[in-house]
């Protein structure tokens, strides 16, 4: 008697840390699943999917070259799709109705377990028709995250590109904006700021601290076994609080 075919998956995510976390969560929840390839952009994901014919594609909605939505549109009917996103606004009603699944970044073990259970039930059926879902998502994808910060630098004001920010830190009624070159202040709370930032790039690591993932050089452990972040271009280190330590467990 022949063995059933081992299910396979493709992961497409442009941030290496997030891609590693996604793979770790997936492996933990579904050890039998073979992750046959990883892609850094949409064009690569599409080429790998056509070459390897995976059963499932985990597609980051916002990727370079081609978005996850564009890839899903071109793979229509070829495989089951799970969208990966940091934006709650993408979790539209169609997701909850079961037409297609999604995971929010950073990916939690609980959410991944739910996604895996639903995927296992669907594998024996044809992939869902994503036309309606894609239309809804494309309509909502026009609003992007915060790109510029208007900050006080002494007596003057400065426009700081968000990509240049190493981290944000709450200080009394202000939030300190730290770049490789210096610091500035804004009148916005960490909570309000976090809601406006790109969650694929910025993670809250403490009640009063948000860090740019692209500015992380490495993550070690301190004497309490808490994650300790070494930054690129800055001498200070950031301690990750216990509340957010789980974000780095799979790395």
Structure description:
By secondary structure, the chain is α/β, with parallel strands linked by helices. The protein has 2 domains: 8-140, Rossmann fold (3-Layer(aba) Sandwich); 148-248, LytTr DNA-binding domain (OB fold (Dihydrolipoamide Acetyltransferase, E2P), Beta Barrel), CATH 2.40.50.1020. The protein is 27% helix and 31% strand. It has 7 helices and 15 strands. The protein has a 5-stranded parallel beta sheet with strand order 2-1-3-4-5, with helices on both faces. Strands 10-9-8-12-11 form a 5-stranded antiparallel beta sheet, with no helix packed on it. A 3-stranded antiparallel beta sheet has the order 13-14-15, with no helix packed on it. A hairpin with a 2-residue loop joins strand 6 and strand 7 (156-161). Helix 1 crosses helix 5 (109-122) and helix 2 (42-52) packs parallel to helix 3. The protein is globular. The N and C termini lie far apart (40 Å). The mean pLDDT is 85.
